[in-house]
Amino acid sequence: MSRKLLVTGGAGFIGSNFVHHWCKTYPDDRVVVLDALTYAGNRGNLASLEGKENFRFVRGDICDRTLVDKLLQTENIDIIAHFAAESHVDRSILGPGAFVQTNVVGTFTLLEAFRQHWQTNNQPLNYRFLHVSTDEVYGSLAPNDPAFCETTPYAPNSPYSASKAGSDHLVRAYYHTYGLPAIITNCSNNYGSYQFPEKLIPLMCINILMGKPLPIYGDGKNVRDWLYVNDHCSAIEVVIQRGTPGETYNIGGNNEVENINLVQMLCQLMDELALDLPVRPSQNLITFVKDRLGHDRRYAINSNKLQTQLGWTPSVTVEEGLRLTVEWYLTHRDWWEPLLSEEYQAYYRKNYLQSAS
Ligand code: NAD
Ligand code: TYD
Fold it and tell me: Active site includes 347?
């Protein structure tokens, strides 16, 4: 039987990759995207789906209860895949208010609307609320600590991760209190196509192409556990299909890399793949800048539960994924150039002026 999905934040980085993945894998399912098109949302990411019978785009805010109620009812939604969020740590340091509003109040609004919808329809067994969250809720690891697992206590350190932690707690409470069939996934750092230029990997690729400094916070030895976005999408698919309501699943690719090493890998790939570079070798652009406030030292995720219980495995190594990503940014200048808007330049100046050492 075909399913009806409401995908919030489906015009953002991971959301749009997920929508493409789902529509390709399950063409008979109906996918409704609800996205406010903030600076990070781009309807063009979904251009190839516009006009298709089983696809609909709605511009709107997840905090708008009337709109969410109407969509759940008229579209007869049975699955919410909830990606919509304010997602950038540096922006959460500059202005945390929007993070509380969208990530906490927005998730609460969706939960309340979905609870009413699920109860009104006599609690169908196939309904799911899939909440997409982050490994950052677990806080920061010391070099030899074991990787985060699903029972690691929450210890968020940034306004971003605190707002995501708040939303996770609400989702958990809706399962325990009302029995709402909700599942949480906590994933490590993603990279791949359609990622907004403010995040580390696209920022470095674009700055290399423009001959601009490559700002590395602190000593560059912070560690992130990188996952190719397509592998995140396949993990969410598996969790929607086979995950148990009330459970949490960690998602990660076992790819811990220090920031400085990652940027050096990107420089080498760019030197190899890009024809005209203003500065070559591009690692001459590397510039150490003042550290991010409250900068978490290390993230690492243990995804054994997802792998052993639900049979998911990542498909690409970080070397393969980075090459695919660099190739994508090299061939999609028309996608990222318009995003370097005046608003983006203002954000960039504000963030990196503060971090100039
Ligand atoms: P993104 O910033 O690229 O996209 C967010 C999308 O949500 C945008 O399209 C934006 O327009 C939309 N949005 C924002 N506020 C909204 C609102 N109030 N109502 C409706 N839509 C709104 O983010 P992303 O990197 O694709 O992340 C998606 C989800 O995955 C987030 O929940 C994030 O916390 C989580 N996550 C991200 C990563 C990562 O590395 N990017 C890792 C783990 C988890
Ligand atoms: P980011 O992509 O912002 O993801 P997150 O903060 O959610 O992990 O940053 C990844 C890592 O790269 C993080 O340790 C901060 C660092 N970083 C820099 O050193 N310079 C930069 O300009 C940016 C954006 C990030």
Answer: no
